[in-house]
Design brief:
The chain is mainly alpha-helical and about 110 residues long. The chain is about 55% helix and about 10% strand. The longest helix is centred in the last third of the chain and has 16 residues.
Length: about 110
C-alpha cells in the first residue's frame, strides 16, 4: 500500500506539498497539484483515515460496548445508533464486553484512561 511519502517522492515534491495538494489546498499551483494527483493515481494511493485522525487528535468514532451483541434487541439498537452516528459524521464501533476484565473492549478503555 502506497503512502503519502511514496506519492511525494514519485511527484518530486516535499511531503507537505503532497499533503496540501491531496487535500485541495490553494497553496499549491495547479501544475504541482496535477503532478501529485497523477502520482497518487499511479500508485493507487488512498488516504489513511487513522493517520488523519491522529493528526487531528479527534477520531469522530463512537465505541458502543455492550455485554451481548446477539438477539433482535441488540441488533436493532446497534443499527439505530449507527444510523444516527453516520448522519452526524461519526463512525461506530460496536463490541462486546463478554470476557470480563480480559475483553478487548475493557483493555481498549483502560488504555484510553
Amino acid at each position: 500500500m502506497a503512502t503519502i511519502k511514496d506519492v511525494a517522492k514519485l511527484a518530486g515534491v516535499a511531503l507537505s506539498t503532497a499533503s496540501y495538494a491531496l487535500s485541495g489546498d490553494s497553496k499549491v499551483s495547479a501544475k504541482t497539484k496535477a503532478k501529485v494527483l497523477e502520482a497518487a493515481r499511479e500508485l493507487n494511493y488512498r488516504k489513511n483515515g487513522f493517520a488523519m485522525d491522529l493528526k487531528r487528535s479527534r477520531t469522530n468514532t463512537i465505541a458502543l460496548i455492550l455485554t451481548d451483541l446477539s438477539g433482535p434487541y441488540y441488533s436493532e439498537l446497534i443499527r439505530s445508533v449507527q444510523d444516527v452516528a453516520l448522519a452526524n459524521g461519526y463512525d461506530l464501533i460496536a463490541c462486546s464486553s463478554m470476557g470480563g476484565r480480559d475483553s478487548t473492549a475493557v483493555r481498549f478503555l483502560r488504555e484510553k484512561e
